[in-house]
């Protein structure tokens, strides 16, 4: 079975460079996807409280460990503190909910899902009455970070990091933290290459996880008729040359940029395909061609929903 290379994080923990994404993997399907992935060598799973499927993931992990299919130490489980859990007390509560849902004693990597807090309460998505945007909270994400640091000290989390933060927000966390962020998870694919942000993180010793590495094929953020990078002529040509699929080329490209990559699938064939990316290499020339197809196109453009949030991350250059 393929042994996936790892990157060593600031925390000293080792993170497998490929994992299975689980956003939009429906309850009733996600467990089966996880079983297929585990049986085919995946050990890293990207989860989040807001994906509403962690109970089923926890069930499968518990069974896999009990059956001796994997040891807990071989697994690398990421989860994320949702926007309605940003105050210090709520963040700590969020950690406990995640541990309970995933049926784990510790999480390998816990991220703040977004710098933007939403009104705290029962609703994960507290839409305004006219449905135009969220009710915000102006809780400072540094308070959330303190909650995460405490979870590390309590042994509930091994490494902590950020998601959807811009470079200035990351710097602010670095400047005010006891434990430095180990990982940044952001949208990143051949049409949105994020070169400046990746360079910034690498300089700071922060590893970068590429989410939506295939260009995230479904609504709500992707609009009908928008370009599909899996049909890009440059990617198709490279795929043909290596006798690989366009998705495998996109994933391989991320890996060769030194990134961690978390493609989502619930389809057996595609789960296997996305993991079969270690037997070929893109040449220097092919990597240069891939660099040339960047469109600086962010699919997760949250401006309509969150654009006037105090901590909206996408107004700054990167
Ligand atoms: N931190 C954040 O805010 C954030 C935001 C977005 C995503 N994420 C994480 O990143 C993961 C991946 O991102 P994503 O789910 O947005 O998109 P993605 O992985 O880029 O694309 C997933 C889509 O591509 C399809 N697909 C998978 N493998 C394929 C292949 N080999 N060929 C053709 N199509 C393929 C999937 O359908 P099938 O399932 O039918 O195969 C699904 O529709 C998420 O699941 C989540 O864990 C994090």
TrEMBL record:
GO terms for molecular function: oxidoreductase activity. The record marks 80 as: Lowers pKa of active site Tyr. Substrate binds at residue 113. The active site is at residue 51. InterPro entries: AKR, Aldo/ket_reductase_CS, NAD(P)_OxRdtase_dom_sf, NADP_OxRdtase_dom. Residues 18-294 form the NADP-dependent oxidoreductase domain. The keyword ATP-binding does not apply. Pfam families: Aldo_ket_red. Belongs to the aldo/keto reductase family. This is NADP-dependent oxidoreductase domain-containing protein.
């Amino acid at each position: 079975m393929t042994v996936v290379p790892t990157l060593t994080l600031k925390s000293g923990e080792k993170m497998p460079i490929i994992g299975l994404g689980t956003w939009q993997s429906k309850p009733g399907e996600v467990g089966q996807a996880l079983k297929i992935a585990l049986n085919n060598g995946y050990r890293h799973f990207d989860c989040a409280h807001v994906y509403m499927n962690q109970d089923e993931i926890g069930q499968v992990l518990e069974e896999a460990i009990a059956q001796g299919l994997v040891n807990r130490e071989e697994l690398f489980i990421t989860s994320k503190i949702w926007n309605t859990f940003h105050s210090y007390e709520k963040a700590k509560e969020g950690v406990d909910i995640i541990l309970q849902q995933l049926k784990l004693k510790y999480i390998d990597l816990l991220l703040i899902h977004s710098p933007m807090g939403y009104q705290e309460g029962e609703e994960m998505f507290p839409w305004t009455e006219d449905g135009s945007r969220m009710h915000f909270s102006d809780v400072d994400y540094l308070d959330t970070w303190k909650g995460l640091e405490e979870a590390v000290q309590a042994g509930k989390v091994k490494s902590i990091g950020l998601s959807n933060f811009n470079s200035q927000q990351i710097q602010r966390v670095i400047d005010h933290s006891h434990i430095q962020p180990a990982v940044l998870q952001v949208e990143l694919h051949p049409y949105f290459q994020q070169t400046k942000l990746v360079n910034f993180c690498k300089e700071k010793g922060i590893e970068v996880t590429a989410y939506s590495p295939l260009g995230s094929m479904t609504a709500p953020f992707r609009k009908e008729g928008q370009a599909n990078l899996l049909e890009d002529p440059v990617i198709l040509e490279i795929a043909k040359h290596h006798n690989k699929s366009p998705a495998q080329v996109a994933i391989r490209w991320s890996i060769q940029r030194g990134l961690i990559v978390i493609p989502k699938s619930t389809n057996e064939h595609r789960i296997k395909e996305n993991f079969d990316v270690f037997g070929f290499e893109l040449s220097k020339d092919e990597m240069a061609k891939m660099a040339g197809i960047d469109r600086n196109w962010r699919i997760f453009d949250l401006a309509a929903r969150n654009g006037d949030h105090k901590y909206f991350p996408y107004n700054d250059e990167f």
